[in-house]
Amino acid sequence: MDEALNEQTGQGSDTALVVGGGLAGMQAALVLAEQGRRVVLVEARPALGGFFPLLDNQFPTQSCGVCFMACDTPTYCPFVQCELHPNVEVVTFAAVEGVERDAEGRFRVRLVERPTCVDPDACTDCGACEEVCPVSVPREFGDGLETRKAVFRYYPKAVGKAYVVDPDACTRCGKCVEACDPGAIDLDAEPREVVVEAGAVVLAPGADAFPASRREELGYGRYPNVLSAVRFERMLAAGSPSSGRPVRPSDGRPPRSIAFVQCVGSRDAEGGQGHCSSVCCMFALKQALFAKERLPEAEVTVYYMDLRTFGKGYEAYLRRAEAAGIRFVRAVPSVVREVPGSRDLLLQVAGEGPASAEVPHDLVVLSTGFCPGTAGQDLLRAFGAEPDASGFGGGPEFEPCATAVPGVYLAGAFREPRDIPESVLDGARAAALAAERLGAADAAEEPRLPAPADFRGEEPRVAVVLCECEGFNTDRADFDALDRAAREVPGVVAVERVAHACSRAGLEEVRNRFAAAEANRLVLGACSHRIVEQLVRGVLRRSGFHPGLVTVANLREACLEAGGGTRAAADAVAAAVREAWYAGFPELRSESLERTVLVVGGGAAGMEAALRLAGLGLSVHLVEKEPALGGNLATSRFTLRGGDPQALREDLAARVEAHPAVKVHLGTRVEAATGRLGAFRSVLQTPEGEVELLHGAVVLATGAREAEPRSYGYGQSPRIVTQKEFEALLAEGRVPEGRVVMIQCVESREEAEGCRPWCSRVCCTHALKNARRLLDLHPGAGITVLYRDLRAYGTYEAQYRDARDRGVVFVSYDLDRRPRVEPDGERVRVRYIDPALGQEVTEEADWVVLSVGMAPDAAENARLADLYGVEVDAHGFFREKNPKAALADATRPGVYLAGLCHGPKHIEESLVHAGAAAGRCAAVVGRGARPVSENVSYVVEKICSRCGVCVEVCPYGARSLDMDENVARVDPVLCRACGACTMACPNKAAQQYGSSPKQMLMALDELLG
Amino acid sequence: MAETAPKTEAFEPRIVAFLCHWCTYTGADLAGTTRQQYPPNIRVVHLMCSGAVDVVYVLKALMDGADGVLIGGCHPGDCHYESGNYKARRRVAILRNILGQLGIPEDRIWLRWISASEGKKFAETVTEMTEAIRAMGPCEFKQHWDV
Amino acid sequence: MKTGALPSPSDPLAAAEALLRGLLEHDLVDEVLVPARAAGGTTALGLFADPARLEGANPWSPVMPVQGARAVSNLTFTDPGRRVAVVLRPCEARAAVELIKLHQIRTERVVFVTVDCPGTVEVTAFQASGLDPADASRSLLAAAAAGEPAAPEGLSLRTACTVCEHPAAAWGQIRLLTFGAGAGGVAVEAEDEWADRLAGAGLASFPADPPAGRAEAVEALAARRRKARDELFERFRAEARGIEGLKEAFATCIRCYNCMENCPICYCKQCIFKSPTFDHPGELYARWAERKGAQRMPAETVLFHLTRLNHMATSCIGCGLCETACPMGLPVATLFRSVAQGVQAMLEYEPGRSLDDPIPLTVFREDELQEESGAGE
Q1: Looking at chain B from residue 38 to 97, which residues have their Cβ under 8 Å from any Cβ of chain C?
Q2: Could you list the residue range(s) of the whole structural domain that residue B118 is in?
Q3: A208-370 CATH
Q4: Looking at A27-31, A147-151, A561-565, C168-172, which range is the least confident one?
Q5: Is the interface score ipTM higher than 0.85?
Q6: Which residue of A has its CA nearest to B123?
Q7: Rounded to a whole number, what is the distance in Å from the CA of B34 to chain C's nearest CA?
Q8: Phi and psi at residue A948, in whole multiples of 5°?
Q9: Burial class (CB in 10 A: 0-12, 13-18, 19+), C311
Q10: CATH number, domain at B130?
């Protein structure tokens, strides 16, 4: 270590350190970076991504979509965006080694970066090292489904320079060093020490996958046809050895009967895994659906305790899995045995039925959950905080993402087991808290760049610069022939070569050659647009040139790596020259955005959103239709985790009312609204009269309410009440000792008329909290909970266990055998089937408590959706932009969602949602301006027929018809340059810079031979 | 009446591929990076979205020299621009329907959903398409000067 | 919708003229767009402000040299500032529906008067026949009333008319019904609001029985037309298939763009083929010749037709005016419409049916056309 380079990066109090490069950490980094903060993003593994690169497809969309976690327009996968973002410095393969906190609460963090032994600036990614490496070890990515070399890419789809040497596996034979032409490999590279000074820290270390081998009796590691969920997930990926088809590892044949075993490493207090991992039911459904889709003949069975599909839209996903023919068995296999010879498997299943049986399957997938992981715990302790009793990060209920240490925030699955959507929300909220800690930022200062040289009206002069890629490209194409071919294309004034265009020095060389050629167009023949286009555009822009003069010809990935040779490369260069020749140059500018936000709804989510936004330097108008703030908090008396909602309500309301940047409008409703992101205009009907407000964004936080039950005798007896009513009775001490029967899923999770098909998520925990409070008051109280699936997810499982330990009886029922309720004077008779006995049981209850779930104010939400141009779903909740990665964004830019109006949530989850909405909103409107795309679309007014087809197809509402001037118009703030309008317009009055029809046709012709 | 192209060398199909930036173009990158070899008959046009592929580009390619056109977009539901791939799907269906009715083989035009992680599928698609188009022979349009 | 009777129902031409004049005289509209007798022994589309000038108005003009929907677009693309009644045949009305959806027609000040259509004949043939237009109309109406539309002796209906399966007025605030109204008869149908206005002005009386047997007569005719259409298209497809068929179809095309200029669905202010996008440098033509060995000039003729087909196939309402306008007599209407038929069937879209059906190129359904396309599916 004495030779280690001691380097200091980061500039102290305006820098945030994010530890953990999974989705939560990347979201935190991007939200901070988009707010203009400097971020150092540290990842322990050799590449960013966490669990995410493992997943080809995700529930419930059966696709990906994590690109939507970008605060603004999605561009790349988040890990590429983090790498590219000018405000983010990524440090991979690094660990926190020491933390100091000074008197002002700033952090000085010592990181040690392990050597990858491959210099990314010199590596040309040719793969020769990997080919010659003689070592073969199981690949940790995918839990050992495949093998890898000692020099390898951490995960296969990593694009770009991602090679790393595994020092533990490397035998130092030196073959890779010899094979590496550019000399990029140094097996003696030393660790590097980096010190980061940061004003705030977000810890998102992620949870570990439970090692399936710890449940020895289930056979993982001994029987090849028993897979962990991670290994099976890898098998389902398009790039897996079986190209995504499920196969039996023992013989490579497709299985006929697949069993999924749930709760492996979850809900197992004796095994030290007392929590529910929250995600396994959903990923098992996803894996089962894909298995069924790819092997329609196979039988697929899921063995479970409770199906916990509690997220938004997840219940529908469960219905879909049932419809697809997946079998669900409420029973937990205790032992798996292998049949010698066939290597099929026998599962010992002890169910709710009378006897246990051995059931044969020929492939078993263990739905392995999360462990908190000691790395995360150590990290938390290094910053001075402690994990909670479950071993996860935890933290205060009503300050989610905070820790005991000011300035240290927690996000993601390490805080508490959670899936991608919730991890992303966590990341956004943690970023909002961290940014607030760093101090309010002003509107972003646009970097002062020279006005680009104006080449309009000049005859095009094209300089072609070809990248040799340190011999990679020159080995695969005749560059002299390429040079000659390029010179034959009209307009080319110079053809130059550089050794390595994408390195820092190489990019400057490209710029210098272009400038020396006195050209006004540049064609860079190098690698993929994805790798080099933004880089070279940036260099030229900073040197006073218009970025639109660059056209990239992808020689490497599209031609030479695949064996296309000189001809393909020459065609690509010629096409790029034609494209460059006809390039147009939009004016480079930004449109300003109002830094005021309207928050609609003054419940927990609305108040929290207002406070977070104000904390991030924005002005806020908070509208509440009632005469007082509070929403549902007003009727919430205690929580399962022991929080005091009344104290929360008073605290939030007091802070909102006292905040100088928040203006509260009580008894007010939004009457009318026009405009778009950056410039909405809303009319508020206040008790004092109409107020017109100009604002850049809106947060909808209109809440939802406990529904009123229509069944089980509600209304026929004062002893039949809802959970919320029972909560009030308990809080007021008005429940005498006696027998209580609770019925879960009342009119929930059913498609029938008048029912709520969704799971309301909070009712199971609501029942648990009321049951436990009753036992606190009357330890002898008899409580029976009749449930369908008990959804005490995450660390709520501990309270479920506690309730059982304290004598609460939980009995499951099916929809076709529902409990029956008969009011009888002061008591209520409840009849239900006890599945253990297979008999009807009758209870004389003093109270029957109905868990009815939540419903939105569908009419009011529809009205607001109409005003702001967003969508509501079939149930009346607001629809999110993307169900995986953008839950706090509505379906139109500049409109955000917080709390129950988006879907049922616990209080703490509403606070997370509101914080995330604020963080993402501040990342867009907080900057005060938005640059117009270099590829923005425009209207050739002379030939525009005003037909409106472009308006219809624009997904962003960026186009409108001007009925006075009889042309279509583009709002450059909203245009995201997708080109939908250009295709829809029959005569190409709709065009976009960078791919006009002239450019396309001329380039195309060069590709036709 | 039918004239054959004057060239005597063995027929090598020329395929133009319109690839969307976010999925199929990235998948093609991955095919390159992971050294998936595929026939050199393909020429790539880089577009931001499959929803921006105009029928006039496809027809123009087929009339002026291409033997096949591949349009690659994000899987349904995965479009970066929300629904560009669905719009492309309609356009391509209309174009193929028209050509089919006119007796021009519509199977010179392929629409494929290839994600950023499907490098292998990209390589396989190009290989499969090259062989299929090779079997179909040169595009009818370019064999007739008077079209 | 109400059915009513006109004061002089025994002569549709006179009845229509009276009705239109009444609209002007009672200040129900300011102007009327309708075909009327014109110089050269034929009719032309006129926009009448003065009721006295309406003599010779003929909604059933035996010829249709231009598409009425195009004229309505000219008139209403920007606000005409006056209330206008426009008289349209069913094929013109269906084109108008498409153009309304495409914002080429603004409807605020327009009342659409549509008529049952007995068919039309080609303009040049009609002029050569020397027939009086009103007499020819009466002959056409009489044949249609008898259940079998036919041209006056010595003439024949336009091909497009012989396969028109939508000959009845089915849209518009005021409709003049002749099918099933008996020889020489006419009835009126109007939306309630217009029925009240017409009755108030004494131009028609409501209610009245709808023409007896009209629905059956229309359906029987439509069925025969569908059959004729399918037979024509089938014959045509068999003949005009493949590259040879395509070449033959356009062998004598002189690229005058008349088909496009007369097509109501080709609404572009300037066609892309006449725009700078297709104004190529000479080098390009030379390259094509070199690449292929030879190149037809002017180039891109079939490309133009195929592109146009892609643009208009979804909305083609089959009026056949492309063919009427073609100076070379190419069977373009049959070609375009037969192909359009297939496209519309695939997309389950019937152009001109309703303002509520969105233009197919602006929408999609997530669950449609699910397969990836191309060989090897």
Answers
A1: 55-56, 59-60, 63-65, 70, 76-77, 83, 86-87, 89-97
A2: 15-143
A3: 3.50.50.60
A4: A561-565
A5: yes
A6: A562
A7: 24
A8: 85, 0
A9: buried
A10: 3.40.50
